[in-house]
């Protein structure tokens, strides 16, 4: 019975990483939003989020290595500087505040950010450096506290009308650096046995391979809509988890 449970958990772990990696390659983001709920359930909140950060970094590195010539480095730098800075106070807040209230606060920020992105997309503010800095800061804070850095960046991409194809390529460098910064801020690495490591890494590579095949075949509008829906679903899920934990 115990072996069956362990096998089921291993298969679920592989499925979550596989789908997350495919989503990351196709839409530019989504690994954490797709994979983190199951990884946290299996490994716990601390180890689970650390694994999300680590595998997210690996996934982004593998994709970045394929597309680095097409990355918009100036745009990414503007987002990265405030994001990396905010990982350190974010790590402190995560230890101080605790889970439920932090989850609720973050989810509300994400929902408001996504809603606001549609309101400012036709305004000059949508192209401003201030919006980019703010989005990067919120994303960095969320990366280390909840393992989810994509929604704020997705909101910025919509507001600034960043072309989906260029966004999906460029944002890999952003996620790579931010995931590494989050791990450094927490001061550790996830602790898994060798079977779990092999399963996760193999599922990640296979997911990226599938994403490479599907990405050119999916229209930009569909991919962008999917990014927003995934971000919104992640925020709502985080809100429900926070409220449930308090109740």
UniProtKB/TrEMBL annotation:
Pfam families: TauE. The keyword Transmembrane applies. This is Probable membrane transporter protein. Belongs to the 4-toluene sulfonate uptake permease (TSUP) (TC 2.A.102) family. It is found in: Cell membrane; Membrane. Its main location: membrane. It is a multi-pass membrane protein. The keyword Flavoprotein does not apply. Keywords: Cell membrane, Membrane, Transmembrane, Transmembrane helix. The chain crosses the membrane at residues 39-64, 76-94, 100-120, 132-159, 165-185, 194-214, 226-246.
């Amino acid at each position: 019975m115990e072996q069956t449970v362990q096998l089921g958990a291993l298969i679920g772990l592989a499925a979550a990483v596989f789908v997350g990696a495919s989503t990351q390659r196709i839409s530019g983001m989504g690994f954490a939003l797709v994979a983190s709920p199951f990884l946290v359930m299996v490994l716990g909140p601390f180890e689970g989020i650390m694994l999300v950060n680590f595998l997210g970094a690996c996934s982004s590195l593998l994709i970045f290595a394929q597309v680095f010539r097409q990355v918009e480095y100036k745009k990414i730098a503007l987002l990265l500087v405030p994001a990396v800075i905010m990982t350190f106070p974010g790590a402190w807040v995560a230890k101080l505040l605790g889970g439920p209230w932090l989850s609720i606060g973050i989810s509300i920020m994400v929902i408001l950010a996504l809603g606001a992105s549609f309101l400012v997309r036709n305004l000059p503010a949508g192209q401003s450096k201030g919006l980019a800095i703010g989005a990067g800061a919120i994303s960095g804070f969320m990366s280390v506290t909840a393992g989810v850095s994509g929604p704020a960046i997705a909101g910025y991409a919509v507001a600034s009308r960043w072309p989906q194809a260029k966004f999906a390529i460029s944002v890999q460098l952003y996620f790579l650096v931010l995931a590494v910064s989050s791990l450094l801020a927490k001061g550790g690495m996830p602790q898994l046995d060798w079977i779990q490591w092999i399963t996760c890494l193999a599922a990640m590579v296979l997911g990226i391979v599938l994403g490479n095949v599907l990405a050119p075949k999916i229209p930009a509008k569909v991919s962008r809509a999917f990014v927003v829906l995934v971000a919104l679903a992640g925020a709502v899920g985080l809100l429900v988890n926070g409220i449930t934990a308090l109740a």
